[in-house]
Amino acid sequence: MSSRKEILVFDNILSLRSWRKQFIKQDKQVAFVPTMGSLHEGHLSLVKQASQHCPIVAVSIFVNPAQFAPNEDLNEYPRTLSNDLELLHSLDCVDAVFLPKVEDIYPFGIPLDVEKQKGAFVEVKGKSHQMEGKSRPLFFRGVSTVLTKFFNIVQPNCVFFGQKDAQQCIVVRTLISDLHFPIEMHVGKTGREHDGLAMSSRNKYLTPDQRNYATTLFKGLSAIKNEFDQGEKNREILLNKGYELIENIAKEVRENNLGFELKLDYLSLVDPRTLEELQEIEEEKGAILSGSLYVGKTRIIDNLLLNCTL
Ligand SMILES: Nc1ncnc2c1ncn2[C@@H]1O[C@H](COP(=O)(O)OP(=O)(O)OP(=O)(O)O)[C@@H](O)[C@H]1O
Ligand SMILES: CC(C)(CO)[C@@H](O)C(=O)[O-]
Ligand code: BAL
């Protein structure tokens, strides 16, 4: 018989708030791990880290419509709630799971057409429109908005985010400091599959052939990092290493007629504080090396840190 910790599941903001209140009186710190569900080991490692920092752990599962563009995969996004709850239960360290309803988070509705949206939205200017934000212009507005709502509802002392979404970490750090949330932010390392592919809920979209080639982005980034570690600091020389490697693999995929293509969206090399593209990397400042690759229709992202932290 299992004697695992019971998880309280809240789909209602008021009841979550009243649960949260007791820990203020008890002076117990609450850690919060926001997710969109379809949980994998990357998420679970964040939850475990959260439990090492705080006695109380809350996880949210919410596929946030505001961060999806009309042409993106909101409807297809994998939803595996009962398995997610089982995984969280098996960790034996989660106190509460928050499963808000879309209509409670967005009481004015949330049409994907931004012109039709009503209500309050939050934007972190200067860090939301480069890199991922070029391909997904409203993505960080959606993320910043939902996290502001969640931070107000859950009132966490600590929050945990994954390095896999490096720009998201920088945007959230800025959101927390600029809006004066009394929250400590932690960034967990990227969980990877045995061959280096960054774990991601969207990896479920990949066919077996696509999965074999999904490591291409990580291989390109690793080749660049290797060159950096050997002393190269020039953008063009570094990025060309990655472009070349990725293009060679993309060519192999085309020649093998596998029925899909590898298409690089971007490679980026930015200052970790300002997210400005760098021509030359300074040893003391370091850089975030990141990119995105379409494997067929599935868009994967990854990054490696060059002498810096998030
Ligand atoms: N491989 C990973 N290692 C560590 N943390 C991760 C990993 N993948 C996601 N996370 C983190 O988990 C949190 C929730 O992410 P999310 O639910 O969007 O999962 P995801 O796998 O990134 O999904 P998607 O496929 O949509 O990118 C975020 O802070 C994210 O950075
Ligand atoms: C932080 C987040 C849960 C906000 O919806 C999402 O962007 C994610 O899962 O990374
Ligand atoms: N982890 C990022 C969530 C998204 O791509 O929508």
UniProtKB/TrEMBL annotation:
Family statement: Belongs to the pantothenate synthetase family.
Keyword terms, alphabetized: ATP-binding, Ligase, Nucleotide-binding, Pantothenate biosynthesis
Protein name per UniProt: Pantoate--beta-alanine ligase
Pfam families referenced in this protein's UniProt entry, alphabetically: Pantoate_ligase
A single BP term in Gene Ontology: pantothenate biosynthetic process
Organism for this UniProt entry: Funneliformis geosporum
Source superkingdom: Eukaryota
UniProt keyword GTP-binding present: no
Pathway(s) where this gene product acts: Cofactor biosynthesis; (R)-pantothenate biosynthesis; (R)-pantothenate from (R)-pantoate and beta-alanine: step 1/1
Gene3D superfamilies: HUPs (3.40.50.620), Pantoate-beta-alanine ligase, C-terminal domain (3.30.1300.10)
GO molecular function: ATP binding; pantoate-beta-alanine ligase activity
E.C. number: 6.3.2.1
Catalytic activity: (R)-pantoate + beta-alanine + ATP = (R)-pantothenate + AMP + diphosphate + H(+)
Signal peptide: none
